[in-house]
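Quick one before lunch.
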Amino acid sequence: MDSNLQQFKDHVIKAAANPDFIHHAWFVDYHLIIVEQIALELCKKHPDADKNIILLLVWLHDYGKILDINHEHKTTLSMGPKVLTEFGFNNEVIKLALDYIRQIDAHAEMDLSKASIEVKIVSSADAAAHLIGPFYQVYLHENPNKSLKDLMSSNKLKVKKEWSEKIVLPEIKKAFLDRYNLILEQNGDLPNNYLTK
Ligand SMILES: [Fe+2]
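Model of the fe (ii) ion complex:
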């Protein structure tokens, strides 16, 4: 990893440990590091992809959320260029990274299966990482005022949306199908039979 990228990664890890950030207890270990690992595995399958920009997107894509959870997308776009300049990234890389972040965030409006391989890898890795670790349980834990019924239906809606809009690489759909179905089941989609399919 390039030294400016390592420094930016360290900066993000430190920022995410701030107790004011609601997800501080789990976000690095159970989200960002998992996104990074899935993205690196995908880079091996897609040697044409630009690994440096992918790793930058991994550590940048939730930066705004860490700083200001209520204005996450706007904050990434406004603070990203400033902080990346401070860490020595050149303007061309910053412009490209921010353009890719805009596309990843626009998954509801854009067909990301037509995006660049770098966008496809980070978007797919981001949503796939939500299927690992305590992501959907954490939502229940962090929203104790909502009813269990609402929490479960929100989880189901989110996992379906991410599966259809953000996971755009077939190898991830294949590798994560059982995990996806398990999340649906744990949030209310019960099968007809339990011992046989
Ligand atoms: Fe993320």
